[in-house]
Amino acid sequence: MTVADHLRLGAWLNPGWDDRLARQRISQLALDPKQRAGSLSGGQRAQLALTLALAKRPGLLILDEPVASLDPLARREFLQGLMEAVAGQRLSVLLSSHLVADLERVCDYLIVLVASRVRVAGEVSDLLASHHRLSGPRRDPGTLPAGQEVITESHTDKQSSLLIRTDAPVLDPAWAVRPVSLEDLVLAYMSRASDDGPASPQRLKVAS
């Protein structure tokens, strides 16, 4: 099937099809409507699939690893197009991905699942603000003040490195305090889950 065939099929199957949006995106992406979809590059196929999804004018778009097979430039262009659609169409997106560095640029809410269990969930900005990397003289984590939850820890003979969660400032001058990236945070909870074994389910509150 050609690119144009995919657009015609989308229009035939979807009563709410936005043909103007579909053709506008195809033009912006410089895709040849006569070209067979199978001959497109990986990035072009992903953009065509996104175009078909957006032209249906959904309220919620669910994407499972949409950029996993794309090169860095194609991933950036795909996510940029997705964010433009979110802003322009009042669209919500549920995105599943292992490419955490990409998610940090586009997602505002994070849920980390390990073995089908929720390990941490919350607004990305809140999670990053409440997690810190501490490094300093070797110390037993059990001696930390109440309210400082240790997510992961590593130790040498003389030094300790901890990733903690706390809503209060870290005032101990013995610690060097550094922020964490979203990837650091996700990997910490995945590592902790592996060490802890199966966890009891958590309930998620969804705001209406």
The gist of it:
39% of the residues lie in helices and 23% in strands. By secondary structure, it is an alpha+beta fold. Helix 4 links the parallel strand 1 and strand 2.
Walk me through the topology.
Layout (H helix, E strand, L loop, with lengths): L2 H11 L5 H10 L13 H13 L5 E5 L7 H18 L2 E5 L3 H7 L2 E6 L2 E7 H7 E7 L11 E7 L3 E7 L10 E4 L2 H15 L12
Parallel strand pairs: 1-2
Antiparallel strand pairs: 3-4, 5-7, 5-8, 6-7
Helix pairs in contact: 2-3, 3-4
Explain how this protein is built.
The chain is α+β, with helices and mostly antiparallel strands and 208 residues long. It has two domains: 3-107, 3-Layer(aba) Sandwich (Rossmann fold); 125-196, no CATH class. It is built from seven helices and eight strands; from the N terminus they run αααβαβαββαββββα. A four-stranded antiparallel beta sheet has the order 6-7-5-8. It has a two-stranded parallel ribbon with strand order 1-2. The longest helix is centred in the middle third of the chain and has 18 residues, at 72-89.
